[in-house]
Amino acid sequence: MSALGIQVPLPRAPYIGPDENAEVDTDIDVYANSGPSAEIAQRPPGKRRKRHHDIASKVRSVQPVPQDKNGNYELPVQVGILTVLNLGHVVWDRDAYHNERYIWPVGYTVQREYYSMRDPNRQVIYTCWITDGGEAPLFHVEAEDTPESPIVAPTATGAWTTVLRAVNKIRQREHSNSASGPDYFGFSHPTIAKMIQDLPGTDKCRMYITQHFVSMKDRHVRGVIKKGRGGRPSVEMLSRGQRALMASTSKSAWSHTDAGHDHGDAVPSTASYSSERISVATLTGSISSSNNNSSSRRSLGHQ
DNA sequence: AGTCTCGCACCTACCGCAAA
DNA sequence: TTTGCGGTAGGTGCGAGACT
């Protein structure tokens, strides 16, 4: 596939988190003061924004994700606009497969909607996955309507920047082509971050800083789910994701690490999601339907 | 008492720009 | 030049208060 795919220029040295001793802003609060300009107002004019490194002290809200009796996440599952098909397995013995903030598991596969690189008026499903590239992971992005040109890059940002360039070009947008790879791949999503952090082997990732998560309140989970596209990946794309995954797993050998098979059972579960038996675990199933009246009333008032 | 309206809290997703 | 952090717009449900 790489023969046809877009190859993004090669890796620089893997990004390693900044100096742990760097100065840290402490006025950050994850939720509180998240309102517009709360922090900006406090920042003296002209003062450069500093990066925050207090990852460990942050508490992030996560959606409830259905788990089986063994505690394994039931996949595929919709998280926000992303559908997680596979969590993959943690490669803890090579530093380029994680940094202080993210872990990039080999076999990790998600789908999301975004503008087509061919038709400016259409949104298509993109399948994103990670393969074992040896010293460093490879990030793949494949659009539903351009399966012959998958994008492969050494970083998530690199892969999605390529997509954004193409999309902005075809949509004739004079727009920044900057993109946040972790955002688009879903790594910055708290729920996904937690699911990855729960994989076996993350404790062996020496640079990774364990993050703290709390369960999101029901009332907000419902709102979050509504914003998604209903957790319905196309069967075709699912099978394509499955094929990509199978290809990557046969190459990278899941036996590379002995960890990970008892928990995420990434490969077997993925391989088993044939189109017939796919049922996406939309998170709605785990949510009590506590107040239908309210929403119907609300909709009357606003629509 | 029941229904409706509005404001609030909180979240996701996108994108600009600081940092590396 | 590239990466990814952080600001913020927009969307949701909930609950309090007003209205019928």
UniProtKB/TrEMBL annotation:
Keywords from the named record: Nucleus
GO CC term, one of those recorded: nucleus
Domain of life, per lineage: Eukaryota
GO biological process: regulation of cell cycle
Low complexity biased stretches: 286-303
Family matches, as SMART domains: FYRC (SM00542), FYRN (SM00541)
Name this polypeptide is given: Uncharacterized protein
Subcellular location: Nucleus
Residues covered by region (Disordered): 33-56, 247-271, 284-303
Matches recorded under Pfam families: FYRC (PF05965), FYRN (PF05964)
Keyword Protein transport tagged: no
InterPro entries: FYrich_C (IPR003889), FYrich_N (IPR003888), TBRG1 (IPR040092)
